[in-house]
Amino acid sequence: MPVVEGSDLALLQRRQQQVRNICILAHVDHGKTTLADSLVASNGIISQRMAGKLRYLDNRQDEQERGITMKSSSISLHYKDAGNGRENDFLVNLIDSPGHVDFSSEVSTAVRLCDGAIVVVDVVEGVGAQTRACLKQIYEEQLKPVLVLNKLDRLILEKQMEPLDAYFHLTQVLEQVNAVLGSIFASDVLAREDITQKDNQESALEEVDDSELYFSPSSGNVVFSSAYDGWAFSVRDFAAMYDKRLEMKREELEQVLWGDFYYNSKKKCAMPGAQEKAKKPMFVQFVLENIWSMYDIIAVRKDKDKLPAIAEKLGLKLAARDLRLTDPKLQIKAVLGQWLPIDSSVLHMVVQHVPPPHQISEERAQRLLYPANIQLSSLPAEMLKLKDSFTTCAASSDNVIAFVSKMSPVHVSQLPQNRPKRMTDQELQTRRDEVRRRIEERKQQGEQTELERITEGVEQLSSREENIPTEPEPEVETERNEFVFVAFARVFSGTLRRGMELFNLSPKHDPRQPSHRIEGEAPHASRVTIGDLYMFMGGELQLLDEVPAGNIVGIGGLEAHIVKTATLSSTLDCTSFSELSIMATPILRVAIEPVQPQDMPKLVKGLKLLNQADACVQVSVAPTGEHVITTLGEVHVEKCVHDLEQSYAKIKVNVSKPIVSFRETIVPAATVDMVNEAIVKTAEDKDVSKKIALQQTLNKLGTLRVIALPLPPEAVELLEKHTDFFKELSATPRNQLLSEKYATLLASIKLKLIAALQDFPLFGLSALSPEELVSRLWALGPRNCGTNLLLNLTDYEQPDFWSSQAKTSDTEIRSLSDPRKDFNSSLVNGFQLTSGAGPLCEEPMQGVCFAVLEWSIQSDGEDLNAKGPFSGQVLTAAKEVCRQAFQNQPQRLVTPMYSCTIVVNAEMLGKMYAVIGRRHGKILSGDLTQGSGNFSVTCLLPVIESFNFAQEMRKQTSGLACPQLMFSHWEVIDIDPFWLPTTEEELMHFGEKADSANRAKVYMDSVRRRKGLFVDEQVVEHAEKQRTLSKNK
Amino acid sequence: MSKIFTPTNQIRLTNVAIVRLKKGGKRFEIACYKNKVLSWRSNSEKDIDEVLQTHTVFTNVSKGQAAKKDELQKAFNKTDETEICKEILSKGELQVSEKERQSVLDTQLSSIINSVAALCVNPETRRPYSASIIEKSLKDAHFSVKMNKNTKQNTLEAIKMLREHLPIERSRMKLRVSFAGKEGGGKLKEAVVKLANAVEHEEWEESTLHLTLLIDPGQYRVIDELVRNETKGKGLLELLELKEVVENEEVF
């Protein structure tokens, strides 16, 4: 095969009729990369013999080691199509994508840039979970799919199927694929159907034409292949072979070669109903049996002598070295690969069925260009005009539009400008001579150690012939620019040139607003300059000067402007393209930390690079100081960690489970016990005074009495919502007047709080109305902005909370000469400390109101500071009294909850419920999605139970359920963490220790253990059962 | 002839922990199970039979000499052996067993780590370090828990050692100091500012000076005393924030 020059490809880029952008999608291990290899080999980039083993597009080391693809990579291929009588050159931009669920984000980025997709299905395994996901994505992005049924050789050698069985098996697999397509189609149609006109369920489905949708060998969009053995065929290929022998028209033959037809040799025509009449279908007779016999001769019987005869019959030329091969697999490759070459069958199908970029469908253009929820007529005319240049994909158009789907990191040394140019033959020859001369010299020295190096030298030389001989790379590269980010983009309209200035439109950019269309004023657009342009050739890049519309391109020099995706346009009238529809949202949260704590800055830098390079990872710093990355799954974590360790941060890192924080609260006394028996209240229980905590300062001069009361949920919600506001408020210096906006907001919060506290029970402790209560608000906590209140019900006049930040200054407070004023801040800080770390497990409190009933100082001339500073004593006393008051009430833990949506098909429903149940999730709803056999289930899951949830879910449901998690709210766990069964029924129901029932205790103890607080558990459970390990005494 | 040393007549005290108490000039011992006495003392083990091997009070456990009734009466004023056992359990001295020691050490270490994490920040980002980083750094710094000191003392010691391994700083306290400017205010101001890490805000209001300061928490006492003494109780010290840290979650 001749090596195709990059310049030829660049020429082809301009002829849009001859450009195809495709990607390969499939379930994991169905042979995407192997197929890509065969196609790459057709361009002479790798040898035919190595195709399928080399995995050329898997150029990461861990991809090669693990044998799975982890990122999408693109390569531009040249294909000469001989079909239809005229020869045509085609440029095929091929993107290979990963099949593993964890990298589905990469698939999304690939799909966006293509016009068509090759769906590969392993005929032995059939349709996998990812095949479904791929087909769905193809449907959503409106690509044109073609099907490759791969691994036919496994049916022959592994399964030992007869041709007839294989035929039925193939029909079944094809049927499966079409069934999936059908259900996606049906649910989409039903979803779009107007619900109001629903008199007949089938109406919408019947009207819509779905004939274009399905795969069928007779319409030519199915290829049967064995990518590993390097052969593939479509029905068309065999029709061309047999049309003369069978005396049928080629077009007719194409229609009947697949399906329930048999050949009537007398009438020389095809007849339907092969199965009925127990005849061999034509596909078996003319296609499969030939291949089977070929395998039989070469691989099973190893009949070498027949090989030349067969080759001659098929019109193949076998090289002498092919005949000498001993491995039957290689022989098959040699013979079948020449007879039914995989590249031409697959690429022909692609060229025939995938539309060229300038025939982009109207619908797809609209979907990409304009947000789905907006009426087209409401858009300004300039925007509508863009669609024309978009659909025609005019390279000459003034409007340049490109979409960047991901930023891929490229090592500096791989950039073409950093590599010497390819050598001419003559130069190569001189280099070879040079090396030989050196070898001679060294030989003369005759040293053993040198000899090894020489052989090395020869090896290097041979590898250099293929590539470019390089001098040792200068190793003085600074750490900063070791990686360059190249934007993986497609030009949709116009021609992209180096040095061009374009607008980078962020997702918020909306040309419907006039201000967004004025240059310089548009708030969500910035100017960027296009750097170098590259053509992707697998791991390598090739420099280009300009790229016309319809091509896939790498753009350099954008890493400072684009984080992950972007729309580039020459005009501000363009909308920002709709976001990638990503199949899965990241759910697995792990904490990352350096093994050497000193490496922290390197880690932070590395995480920033990782964030840019990976479309689907989220990096954040938690309030606890941990660096948390959120990924799609376990393998994705491993890849991220590998990237960090090997390229971005270059340090060793540890991965751990992130810390989950809780909150503490109190609740009104329960009326029923754990087995739903009513609790009889005695008069003693009802006595509120028992709940009041009393505390004196150390010198017995100050006294505090406090009761803790649960706040109504509305009040908690209100305070939670305005946390940031209060935080800001507390940070503003005192004497400063509040801005108008803040003052009105503060007033409105006050009113809402009064409304929320309307039914606040005070148990006769005070007769104040809600208005008065709110005006007696002393402080919020913790940190002046939480959801806990300190209420003043004493005779002391606290600084007015609602205006203190604005007006009251210290001098005013002091002038009142109340001795308690001096210790105001100590008391408030005591409250802040307790509300920031509650007694259960030192987590912040939520929704607790501490009402101070008494605060007195009896200073009869005694020195308040006699036993240390009195302010400190007040602080400690306040802290203690709040703690006690809290403990006097029924305490509860509050856990953060995820809301989780899962789409799962009916057969896995039970297993999915089991997983959720095991992790204490609560099902909210589970409805059948119309038109498909899928259920969509919504549930709530405690965050602490979510670690590895997705992993377990996938394992249990064989990958058919993909959960998506999102933080939803804080929820009280309605179990007392100190609860033990007391009544007879409870003892009967839970046993003496209630290990299983008390989830709250388990959580509390885990936090306490982590924090090194006292945990009520024994070092050794059973004293008698200890073993004595020492022997000789 | 010495006795033949065979396994059968050799009495081994396995799984036995001895608790001793000296009272009335006599030594009393009780035989307990290992790893149980501390649980009893912390009140997490409530079953006395899980703690005591036998309810007998001994004068020497290893020799098997039980204490005499009159001795007990003389020393404890009672003869109920279970009651005496409980007294010895709570007051006596004991050898802490291996697992107990381990669990006490572990708890203390993790509480030290947590309080270091709560007290300190990374001076560059003003964010806290995560507990695991601190744990690792402490290990690198060869920190060992001093059993005879309390958590706070240990924590301060740990922070001192960490400084050499990690860019770490106590998170600063935010204070507001107000005093009248006349009474040697200039001098006082100078002294206070010297003790502070940074002055965030400063303003005069009718000859009263308000200073908002960021200080090292160790200086709080010093400043408090200084202000109180210099202004004779008229100066005001207000604690605005216990620790100043960036706490929100930041997404890259």
Automatic annotation (TrEMBL), chain A:
GO terms for cellular component: cytosol; ribonucleoprotein complex. Keywords: Cytoplasm, Elongation factor, GTP-binding, Hydrolase, Nucleotide-binding, Protein biosynthesis, Ribosome biogenesis. Residues 422-467 have a biased composition (Basic and acidic residues). GO terms for molecular function: GTP binding; GTPase activity; ribosome binding; translation elongation factor activity. Residues 17-254 form the Tr-type G domain. It holds the Pfam family GTP_EFTU_D2. It catalyses: GTP + H2O = GDP + phosphate + H(+). One of its GO terms (biological process) is cytosolic ribosome assembly. It is found in: Cytoplasm. Residues 413-476 are annotated as: Disordered. CDD domains: aeEF2_snRNP_like_IV, eEF2_snRNP_like_C, EF2, EF2_II, EF2_snRNP_III. Signal peptide: none annotated. InterPro entries: EFG_II, EFG_III/V, EFG_V-like, EFL1, EFTu-like_2, P-loop_NTPase, Ribosomal_Su5_D2-typ_SF, Ribsml_uS5_D2-typ_fold_subgr. This is Ribosome assembly protein 1.
From TrEMBL, chain B:
Belongs to the SDO1/SBDS family. Associates with the 60S ribosomal subunit. Signal peptide: none annotated. Its main location: cytoplasm. Residues 15-102 form the Ribosome maturation protein SDO1/SBDS N-terminal domain. One of its GO terms (cellular component) is cytoplasm. Residues 111-170 form the Ribosome maturation protein SDO1/SBDS central domain. It comes from Drosophila madeirensis. Gene3D superfamilies: 3.30.70.240, Ribosome maturation protein SBDS, N-terminal domain, SBDS protein C-terminal domain, subdomain 1. Keywords: Cytoplasm, Nucleus, Ribosome biogenesis. Residues 173-242 form the Ribosome maturation protein SDO1/SBDS C-terminal domain. GO terms for biological process: cytosolic ribosome assembly. InterPro entries: Ribosome_mat_SBDS_CS, Ribosome_mat_SBDS_N_sf, Sdo1/SBDS, Sdo1/SBDS-like, SDO1/SBDS_C, SDO1/SBDS_central, Sdo1/SBDS_central_sf, SDO1/SBDS_N. SUPFAM superfamilies: FYSH domain, Hypothetical protein AF0491, middle domain. PANTHER family: RIBOSOME MATURATION PROTEIN SBDS. It is found in: Cytoplasm; Nucleus. This is Ribosome maturation protein SBDS.
